[in-house]
Specification:
The chain has about 270 residues and is mainly alpha-helical. The protein has a domain at about 185-260. The chain is built from 12 helices and 8 strands. The protein has a 3-stranded antiparallel beta sheet with strand order 1-3-2. A hairpin with a 5-residue loop joins strand 2 and strand 3. Helix 1 crosses helix 3 and helix 4 runs antiparallel to helix 5 (about 95-110). The longest helix has 17 residues, at about 115-130. It is globular, with a radius of gyration of 18 Å. It starts with 15 loop residues before the first helix and ends in a 13-residue tail after the last helix.
């Protein structure tokens, strides 16, 4: 069986406000059918205008929106529920707009590791040279996911999504981007939540603390340095394995990976 981390899945340009609307529909208590109907209405004049085929880009976008917030994979449901709680409480020191970017970025990264893969290559290029050329990002992503046009096309659409979200911006050169908005994240609970999301995008569900917090996949964020103990204290779903004085390995707790709590929509999650 193909692992989630080996799949593309995210192959459309998806605007942040569409994800926000999907999360709001869940928070309002709508069932799956009502959410699907609302999303069809939302996107009818924005994607695949005039088209209603099952394989239309609009339905592909809706599938991404639903899988992120509605039919979330079962092992990610606890993360999803806490993400909804962040959005509902608005208790973060971040502005509502910036909190929205953080939560939706984390959820898409956890559900669609391909998003994280493109972000990793983008973030590395931004660190190395202050800009990221779409062609260079696509080449590096193809090296990981295979020399296929579908990989390049999906990577292009993810990059366009980054632009829509404001975390990348155009430069004077065509197809070359620079960093957009950078968000400071200083709260332990939110840092732990983003760390957990990042671990779900990794095949082995673990990473050294420094690699996790400084990951180029989190390039839109400036995350406050934290101790591994603080992450574990902030989330019962994270565990710590210490290798020496300065080599902490943070991982997803096995019990939470095997026994997710039930979905608020009445099931244990599905794709």
């Amino acid at each position: 069986m193909t692992r989630r981390t080996d799949q593309i899945g995210f192959s459309q340009r998806v605007r942040l406000e569409w994800l926000e609307q999907t999360a709001n529909l869940v928070l309002a208590g709508n069932d799956k059918a009502a959410i699907n109907e609302a999303l069809q209405e939302l996107l009818k004049d924005k994607v695949s205008v005039g088209g209603y085929s099952k394989g239309s880009n609009r339905n592909k976008v809706i599938s991404i929106l639903r899988k992120t917030w509605v039919t979330t994979p079962k092992e990610i449901i606890p993360l999803r529920d806490d993400g909804l709680a962040f959005l509902s409480a608005q208790s973060s020191s971040l502005s509502p707009q910036h909190l929205s970017v953080a939560i939706h970025w984390g959820m898409v990264m956890a559900v669609y590791p391909f998003w994280s893969g493109v972000a990793t290559q983008t973030g590395r290029l931004l660190r190395l040279q202050g800009s990221a050329a779409a062609a260079h990002v696509q080449r590096r992503v193809r090296e990981q996911y295979g020399e296929r046009e579908t990989v390049s096309r999906a990577a292009r659409r993810v990059l366009r999504s980054y632009l829509d979200w404001g975390v990348l911006q155009e430069t004077g050169a065509k197809g070359v981007y620079s960093a957009g908005t950078t968000l400071a994240v200083e709260e332990s609970r939110l840092i732990a939540w983003l760390a957990e999301a990042s671990l779900h995008a990794r095949a082995n569900g673990s990473a050294p603390l420094k690699d996790l917090i400084d990951s180029p996949s989190l390039f839109p964020f400036r995350i406050k340095p934290v101790h591994a103990e603080s992450l574990v204290a902030a989330s019962s779903r994270l565990d710590l394995l210490r290798h020496g004085l300065d080599n902490d390995l943070v991982m997803l707790r096995e019990d939470h990976r095997k026994k997710p709590r039930r979905n608020k929509l009445g099931d244990s999650g599905s794709s």
